[in-house]
Amino acid sequence: MSGQIRYSDEFKAKVALEALKNEQTVVELASRFGVHPTMIHGWKPKLLEGASGVFVRGSKQAP
């Protein structure tokens, strides 16, 4: 057993969006969602990098 928890992409996006709102600190969000603050700091830039894919035309695949 690896001991690692695997979070879904939807969960990561939800947490990262909350972090981008700047309504709570990363530490508060980490406590609320039960994750380490470092993980949230890693998910935020990934969300921002992939956000432009939402607006791609003609693609039927999810980015």
Structure explained in plain terms:
It is a single chain. The protein has 63 residues and is an all-alpha fold. It has a domain at 14-48. It is 56% helix and 0% strand. The chain has three helices and no strands. The chain has helices at 9-21, 26-33, 37-50. Helix 1 (9-21) crosses helix 3 (37-50). It is globular and about 40 Å long. It starts with 8 loop residues before the first helix and ends in a 13-residue tail after the last helix.
Strand and helix layout:
Layout: H1 9-21, H2 26-33, H3 37-50
User: Beta fraction of the residues?
Assistant: under 5%
Quaternary state of the chains:
single chain
Structural class: mainly alpha
What best-fitting shape do the alpha-carbon axes yield? globular
Q: Give the rounded overall mean pLDDT.
A: 90
Largest sheet: none
Alpha carbon gyration radius: 13 Å
Distance between the termini: 31 Å
Number of helices: 3
Helix-strand pattern: HHH
Percent of residues in helices comes to: 55-70%
Q: Could you name the key traits of this structure?
A:
63 residues; mainly alpha; 3 helices; 0% strand; globular; Transposase_8; sequence-specific DNA binding; Trp_repressor/repl_initiator
Could you write a compact summary of the structure shown?
The protein is an all-alpha fold and 63 residues long. The chain has helices at 9-21, 26-33, 37-50. The chain has a domain at 14-48.
